[in-house]
Structure formats: C-alpha cells, structure tokens
C-alpha cells in the first residue's frame, strides 16, 4: 500500500489539503503548465483546484493510483505535484506524472519527487513505470532521464491539443530491475554547451535557427547532395529545429550549428547519429553556406565533431556517406583521416523511383588527424 507521506531526496510527498487550493490554482494556470498539460481546464480557476483537492485526488487514490502534493519539507508549502495513474495490476505497471509550480522550478523538485515515488512504487510491487512527455518539453525529458527513465519510443498523436488536433508523446520507462541513478545517454551534452577550436564553434541547433536552416538546406547544391534530392518544407525545418534538443536527449541525433567562433556568424550545420548503437557505430554529415566554403571550415567542424564522438560519446567507428561526384566533401573527409571504404550501388532513394549510389568513408579513433 502506498504511504500517505513520503520524505526523500529533499522533498515531502503528502496528500492534498484545502490550504493548497490557491497554490494549485496559481501553478496550474501558469502558461508553461497549460502548454504541456493539455488536459487541464483553461482558464484554470480556484474552483478547478478545489474540485481537484476534494474530488479528483481522492478519486485517483480510490482507483489504485496516487495523487501527492510535492511540498517543501521545511515550510510544507506546495512546490508541485506527482502521482500514479492508469494502474494495470496484472501487469504490475502504472503511469507516473508530475508538474512543478513556477516558484519552485530549477531546483530539481520534479526529479526528486519522481525518484521518491518511483522507488516506493517498486518497493510495493510495481514492476514497470511509464512516463510520457510532450515532444517539445525538454525540461520534463531531462527529469525523466535524471530519474532513471529510458526512452522507449513515440506514441503518435497520443494527446489532444487544446483547441483541436493531436500531438505525439514520447514514452519513457523505468523497470524495478533497472540500476539506480540517471538513465544512460547515448548522446551526452556538449562540454560547456559547445565545441570549439577557436576558429569555428559547434552548438546545439535551436528553434531560432529555423530561418538559417531553411535557407541552407534549400540551396540547390545542398539539395543535390542529399537523398532523395528534395528540399525540405518550411514546416519540416521549423519542426526539426524545435525538436533538436529532444532528438539529442533521446539519443536519436545530435544536430549542431556551425558558427564563427569570434563573431557568432552562422556558417552551416552538421550532425551525428547512430547507425548501429550496440556496435558503437555512428554517421556524420555537414553542409556549409556558400560564403563559408573554400576556407577549411568544414574540415575544422568535422574534426571537432569526430573528436567529440570518439571522446565523450564513446563511438568506436564513424562513417560518412557522400555522393560519388561530391569531390569537395571527399577532400574534407580525407583531410580529417577518413578512408574510402566502398561504393554501395543504388543504396539511396532518388527521384521518380530511381536509386542513387553511396560512396562510404570510414574513420577509426586512432586515424583522426
């Protein structure tokens, strides 16, 4: 049976009380809370909070779940909420969820509360906990990772959007048998948020980079060197930039912007993604704006990315696929130490049902120049 009070990791989990109504209303009316928890009433009022305290939370307990206030152990003031829902007894699983009040964000409250409740759930017989995050809610995704939850895929159109439509949810899972501590990350954060050699700097792609990325990746010569050679839409480019951090956290792909180290002027983009995670193999790609070409900047960017891949990431082998006639790209790779490994005939999709050859280069850690 789940206890009514849990104290661990610097937070107190307790039941909802009448004197939590004002704080609950203020927290659930917050724009960020409203954005990422679309099931909340909008606008959220004290009447809604009072219903939750008197009816909603007790119903969660009665259904076999749990509904806790996350409180400051010194003052007992509400900092957030955490709970268990959708229990499936015969599978010994449940869903865990949380929110944090604006006045308590940035203090590790959600991670502490999630760890505390997950450990009590496992101690009382739960074998598997699921956690779902909005695909753009990277703060919540970092909480999931810090609390030991691992990404398990995408639930397509799993959540309604307030006002109409639906959006994807990312699924995260922790098992009772998983080791304690944060979940392993295939793609760690960059040291100090960047990689630099003093001439070029690589940083994570951000939502504000959409204009630049659309301009870069719709250039005819850039389109011609991708498969299939079709320019991205503006909508697809904006989505790629909005989800760049999420793709990094889930280990799907590290997307980076290449900028001038002195001025911050954008130069191009590059990326790293696993091709065979168990084998430690990944692939990289890159593209430069016309004004940045012919100055050795692509070579510097690839060298920085490869060094990070072989170092903090722990990649054992890097590959890069190129169009057979992209001589400039071949020279960049060879300057960094990549070797030609073979021509894969008809490997990639072209236009109108055609196929494109792929000239593959490979690099091992001791070959990096």
Automatic annotation (TrEMBL):
<feature type="domain" description="N-acetyltransferase">
    <location>
        <begin position="11"/>
        <end position="176"/>
    </location>
</feature>
<dbReference type="Pfam" id="PF13302">
    <property type="entry name" value="Acetyltransf_3"/>
</dbReference>
<dbReference type="InterPro" id="IPR016181">
    <property type="entry name" value="Acyl_CoA_acyltransferase"/>
</dbReference>
<dbReference type="GO" id="GO:1990189">
    <property type="term" value="F:protein N-terminal-serine acetyltransferase activity"/>
</dbReference>
<dbReference type="GO" id="GO:0005737">
    <property type="term" value="C:cytoplasm"/>
</dbReference>
<feature type="domain" description="N-acetyltransferase">
    <location>
        <begin position="200"/>
        <end position="366"/>
    </location>
</feature>
<keyword id="KW-0808">Transferase</keyword>
<dbReference type="InterPro" id="IPR000182">
    <property type="entry name" value="GNAT_dom"/>
</dbReference>
<dbReference type="GO" id="GO:0008999">
    <property type="term" value="F:protein-N-terminal-alanine acetyltransferase activity"/>
</dbReference>
<dbReference type="InterPro" id="IPR051908">
    <property type="entry name" value="Ribosomal_N-acetyltransferase"/>
</dbReference>
<protein>
    <submittedName>
        <fullName>Protein N-acetyltransferase, RimJ/RimL family</fullName>
    </submittedName>
</protein>
């Amino acid at each position: 049976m789940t206890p009514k009070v849990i104290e661990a990791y610097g937070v107190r989990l307790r039941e909802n009380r009448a004197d939590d109504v004002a704080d609950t209303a203020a927290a659930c009316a917050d724009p960020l809370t409203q954005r990422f928890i679309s099931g909340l009433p909008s606008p959220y009022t004290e009447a809604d909070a009072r219903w939750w305290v008197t009816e909603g939370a007790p119903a969660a307990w009665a259904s076999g779940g749990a509904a806790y206030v996350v409180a400051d152990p010194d003052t007992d003031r509400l900092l957030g909420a955490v709970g268990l829902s959708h229990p499936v007894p015969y599978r010994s699983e449940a869903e865990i969820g949380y929110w944090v009040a604006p006045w308590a964000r940035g203090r590790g409250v959600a991670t502490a509360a999630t760890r505390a409740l997950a450990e009590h759930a496992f101690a009382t017989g739960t074998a598997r906990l699921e956690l779902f995050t909005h695909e753009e809610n990277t703060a919540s995704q970092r909480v999931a990772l810090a609390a030991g939850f691992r990404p398990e895929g995408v639930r397509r159109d799993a959540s309604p959007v307030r006002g109409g439509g639906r959006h994807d949810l990312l699924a995260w899972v922790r098992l009772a048998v998983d080791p304690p501590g944060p979940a392993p990350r295939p793609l760690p954060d960059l040291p100090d948020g960047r990689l630099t050699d003093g001439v070029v700097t690589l940083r994570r792609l951000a939502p504000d980079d959409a204009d630049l990325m659309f301009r870069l990746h719709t250039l005819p010569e850039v389109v011609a060197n991708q498969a299939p050679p079709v320019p991205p839409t503006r909508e697809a480019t904006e989505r790629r930039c909005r989800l760049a951090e999420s793709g990094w956290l889930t280990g799907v792909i590290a997307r980076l912007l290449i900028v001038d180290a002195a001025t911050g002027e954008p130069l191009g983009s590059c990326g790293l993604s696993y091709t065979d995670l168990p084998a430690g193999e990944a692939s990289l790609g890159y593209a430069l704006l016309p004004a940045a070409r012919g100055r050795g900047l692509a070579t510097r960017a690839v060298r920085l990315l490869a060094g990070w891949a072989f170092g903090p990431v722990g990649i054992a082998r890097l590959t890069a696929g190129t169009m057979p006639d992209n001589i400039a790209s071949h020279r960049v790779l060879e300057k960094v130490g990549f070797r030609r490994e073979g021509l894969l005939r008809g490997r990639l999709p072209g236009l109108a049902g055609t196929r494109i050859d792929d000239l593959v280069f490979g690099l091992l850690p001791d070959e990096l120049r």
